[in-house]
Amino acid sequence: MTTIGILGAGRVGTNLAGKLSAAGHHVTLGTRTIGLAPRIAFADHRTTARTTDIVINATPGDSSLDRLTDLRAELSGKILIDVSNATRDTAEGLPGDLCYPGSSLAERLQAALPDTHVVKTLNTMLFTVMTTPETLATPPTAYLSGDSEHAKKTVSGLLGDLGWQPERIEDLGDITTARATEAMILVVPHIMRRHGFKPFAVSVAR
Questions:
Q1: Which of 30, 66, 82, 182 qualifies as a FRET site for 108, CA 20 to 30 Å off?
Q2: How far apart are CA 148 and CA 18, in angstroms?
Q3: 83 pLDDT exceeds 70?
Q4: Between the CA of residue 140 and those of 82, 155, 170, 188, what are the distances in Å?
Q5: How far is C-alpha 154 from the geometric centre of its chain's CA atoms?
Q6: Three-class SS of residue 54?
Q7: For residue 124, how many other CB atoms are within 10 A of its CB?
Q8: DSSP type of residue 125
Q9: Domain 3-195, CATH
């Protein structure tokens, strides 16, 4: 049984925690507020990172780099799944400019955490689609970016536990390819202004 730590207990983190726990994984949710939920443990970020096999970054992307760099020792040798987007919000509270133009949060995390295997995925969709891809009328795409083939294979297995079919998982290549999927977030405000807060994903149609 894989132990999974999730840093961040907002909508993204709690959504992933519930589905991964239901799939049989032992999940620890890293949050300052200790709560109660079936089959899910709670701990601070440092304990969560230290005591689990795989860690998911679901913290706000504009502060993720500082938060996770502080956990370098705890994350050493582990797979870090980054699902966040680093943007500066507009006055509406929607994603605006990228924090790392010409780069990406995933690349910055990999550089800051050289002993950690960073894999970028699930950052091109509304959080509900991460765990229920089958609900969209058009099958969505989950992209993967990362330098470690083994880590990406492991993450692909976890995506399967979340409901993703292998043919809808697109391995883009090394960690530098994450700048492409992170830039996709810039289309989100325009979609939401036209259609509201409805499930969507930025996908490849074939």
A1: 30
A2: 27
A3: yes
A4: 19, 17, 10, 15
A5: 14
A6: strand
A7: 25
A8: B
A9: 3.40.50.720
